[in-house]
Amino acid sequence: MQIASKLQFASMNPSRFDEKEKTILLEEIDVLLKNAWGKFDINFLENHTLISEQITTARIGGELIGFCALSKKKINSKSIYS
């Protein structure tokens, strides 16, 4: 079976998370980033992911393999996501 067929994506609004969901996601992101880029301060991760308007995760077999945190900004009267 190809890897692409095992990928599962989910988009969510972090403002709707309860404390347990926030903790679990932050722990998963922490492990993912530590293995790929090194250790990030947990407060940095919380301030740059959980305040976003949307988080999209990618998983294989329930394991987090990637994520994207998007925030909406107004520039020249236009909304953009960054």
Fold and architecture overview:
The structure is a single chain. The chain has 82 residues and is α+β, with helices and mostly antiparallel strands. It has one domain. The protein is built from two helices and five strands. A three-stranded antiparallel beta sheet has the order 1-2-3. Strand 4 (72-75) and strand 5 (78-81) form a beta hairpin. The longest helix has 18 residues, at 19-36. The protein starts with 6 loop residues before the first strand and ends with a strand.
Looking at this protein, list some descriptive labels.
82 residues, alpha+beta, three-stranded antiparallel sheet, 2 helices, globular
**Mean pLDDT over all positions:** 91
Order of strands across the widest beta sheet?
A: 1-2-3
The total beta strand count reads: 5
Please tell me how large the radius of gyration is: 14 Å
Q: What are the secondary-structure elements, in order, as H or E? A: EHHEEEE
Tally of contiguous helical segments: 2
Fraction of residues in β-strands: 35-45%
Structural class: alpha+beta
Seen as an oligomer or otherwise, the chain set is single chain
How does the overall form come out from the CA principal axes?
A: globular
Largest sheet: 3 strands, antiparallel
> What is the distance, rounded to the nearest whole angstrom, between the alpha carbons of the first and last residues?
34 Å
| Residues in helix, % | 25-40%
Low-pLDDT stretches: none
Query: How many structural units, i.e. domains?
Result: 1
